[in-house]
Amino acid sequence: MSNDTVKRPPREAEGSRGAEARVEMYRAQVRVRLFEKEAYNLFLQNLVKGTSHLAIGQEAVAAGVSAALRPDDYVFATYRGHAHAISRGAPMTACFAELMGRESGLMAGKGGSMHLTYAKGNFMGSYAIVGAHLTIANGAAWSAVYRGTDQVAVAFFGDGATNIGAFHEALNLAATWKLPVVFVCENNLYMEYTPISQVTAVAQPAADRASAYGLPPVLVDGNDADAVHEAATEAVERARSGGGPSLVEAVTYRHGGHSRADPGKYRPDEEVAEWLAKDPLPRYRTRLQGEGVEAPLLDRIEADARDEVDRAREEAKAAPPADPAHLETEVFSYGESSWRR
Predict the structure, then answer these.
(1) Measured distance CA(80)–CA(87) in Å, rounded
(2) Per CATH, is 17-340 categorized as 3.40.50.970?
(3) Which residues on adjacent β-strands are paired with residue 251?
(4) For the chain, what is the radius of gyration of the CA atoms?
């Protein structure tokens, strides 16, 4: 891809935010990483009901974008949504409880790993149908316009969704109506088990298609929280000021397989090793220390996150199983045509 088709945040922007804010972004990444590792351990203990899709290695995307948002902005995610739910304030105990099918889960144990939702934080859900939530994010963005607020909707999705019809439909409508929505492609190079490059005509499945909808191509290093935050801040400000939608492609890599049942053996060993060397957490810690943040502070952040995860895990394990009485609640509302009145 030629340099004139890629927008890269300036490297000097790394130090443009206050040290305290950037330390908090490190905390956000650590909390997600430790939660995901514990979720994996619970799965191996047969305590997680159903499968789970972890974002270990992709934490910088959720952390960088979330730091650019206001509490009243809307966020939509895929079934790989633990990171986004936690980044929007979902309590770890309730997240663990949902994974384990406990009564105290975010959805009383009914949704499981693939359907986390935390409306209090305007995290409007994880969606198992690939690409389906992109059009729903348009609806949230349109509602903000209709109500006269300056809220922004953000939709995270994987590289595989770029070959789904809903992706193109959502971008076209968002661009036509100039909706305040930011589409964030978490390109981890694989659509389940197939390299995205093997089934896509362009090198960058999201950024290379932006111009078809009159949008600037935005390609960022998804393992660099500062780069993600810079791109997200500009996209969110554009949407909030009436400038319309943006499409951001963050190139990253999941450390494990597609789901917890997938060992990921189809990936070349040298490729995995190359990306493990780009792990966003040690990379960001090294940068912060190089800019003067003291190691004991970062150590304390990691210890606090470990304590939080341990406490949340035990609280969730102690909770009672989901009550079957909840199964038929909050699933359907029959309003006939009354909504038109």
Answers:
(1) 13
(2) yes
(3) 187, 221
(4) 20
DSSP assignment of 255-301 equals SS-SSTT---TTS-HHHHHHHHTT-HHHHHHHHHHHTT--HHHHHHH
Rounded-to-integer distance, Cα 67 and Cα 51, Å:
29
Residue 46 CB neighbours (<10 A): 7
pLDDT confidence band for 6 (50 / 70 / 90): very low
- For the chain, the structural domain boundaries read 17-340
Nearest to 185 by CA among 237, 117, 235, 113: 235
Three-point CA angle 167, 169, 170, nearest 5°: 65
Instruction: Give the DSSP H/E element, type plus range, for residue 222.
Output: none
DSSP β-bridge partners for residue 221: 251
Reported as a single tens digit per residue, the pLDDT across 223-273 is 999 999 999 999 999 999 999 999 999 999 999 888 877 888 899 999 999
Give pLDDT tens digits for 282-302. Answer: 999 999 999 999 999 999 999
For the chain, the average pLDDT equals 91
Task: Judge whether 102 and 118 are in contact, CB under 8 Å.
Answer: no
